[in-house]
Amino acid sequence: MKEQRSTKPDFVTDEERREFLKLGLKITGVMAGGTVLSLMPISEKDAAAELTLAGYDNTPYKPHYCMVIRQNDCVDCEKCKEACVKTNHVPEYGFRTTILEREATDNEGKKFPVFMPVLCNHCLNPPCVRVCPTRATTKDPKTGIVVMHVEKCIGCKTCMAACPYNARYYNEEKKAIDKCNFCWDTRLSKGEKLTACAAACPAHVRVFGDLSDHNSEVWNLIHQPDKAVWVLRPETGAKPCIFYMND
Amino acid sequence: MYKKGLLYALMGTVALVMFMSAGQVMGQDEDYPQEPIIFTKPVKAVIFDHKSHIDNGLDCDSCHDDPFEMAAGTAEENADFNMKSLYQGKYCGTCHDGESAFASNTRCTLCHIGVKGYNRLMGTSGEGEGHH
What we know:
The complex is a heterodimer. Chain A is of the alpha+beta class. Chain A is built from seven helices and twelve strands. In chain A, the strands form five sheets. In chain A, strands 10-3-12-11 form a four-stranded mixed beta sheet. In chain A, strands 1-2 form a two-stranded antiparallel sheet. Chain A is globular. In chain A, about 30% of the residues are buried. Residues about 1-10 of chain A have low confidence and may be disordered. By secondary structure, chain B is mostly helical. Helix content of chain B is about 45%, strand content about 5%. Chain B is built from six helices and two strands, in the order αββααααα. Chain B is elongated, with a radius of gyration of 22 Å. Mean pLDDT of chain B is about 80; it is low at about 20-25 and about 130.
């Protein structure tokens, strides 16, 4: 069932809004139950600002760390995985990030692989945080990073089951769940600007940055009117903060 | 006796000539590596298939010894064996420039088969590989 919302510009879907913005038109009003739209021509620059995905603007996080994955440039060299393992001491049986693979066919009928990097989506409504019985995993109020408090974790694995992205594993040594924390303890808190995976990527597939900064590369990447941007499993309502696009 | 020897010599020559010319025909058609070449540096892994390039009308001279020496692994030893060089028209970029063949900065995974593709070809599971 489609969600009915009262505020006028939100009545139309993000997709419809985006379609009009591509044409250089901003929806300024919705009338007669969505059958009549009031439109206004705007500049390309203003169109970009209007593209803000519903719910992602005005979050309390500053910086609001997120990642944009330029998916079609990923060649599964797995240098990101190597860097992550080394930086965060991920055991052989574990993972903080993975690369998924599927087969696609080009217009000449030739088959080729599509690689999709996956990591913790640092959701705005993280299901893992909601289900944790001991508050061992929380959303950091400053940065938006979904963090683990290892000393509180009882290893019940409920968060693993709740995560829509299979981004968590049980670490036998820590006797706790381990997951991506955007290298907060190993890099960001020490002044590094990038996660280990983003720094290691030779093809600039993993673009890491601050979504609250409208001059940041991540913000500008996902606010191009002519580019499709998607998130994984949007239907869960988790509001993930890992954005995917093709270059 | 003498005549018979001459006949044998003649037959031998004919056979030798036929054998050599057959060998030459073989050489033109199939004297290239049947298994694909796999590059693992600077990233794992890129596949090069001789057959598909020959099927597209190329012959040995097209790529040997320039831009590639006829010895697998030679190009990988060079520090400039990377995408930047390809964009400048070196190595694969000699043809993969968007005119002779698809440009080097497009259709990445047609050649880049990744660690997963590499492990599949090598018959290894890959899980846990490269972690240490």
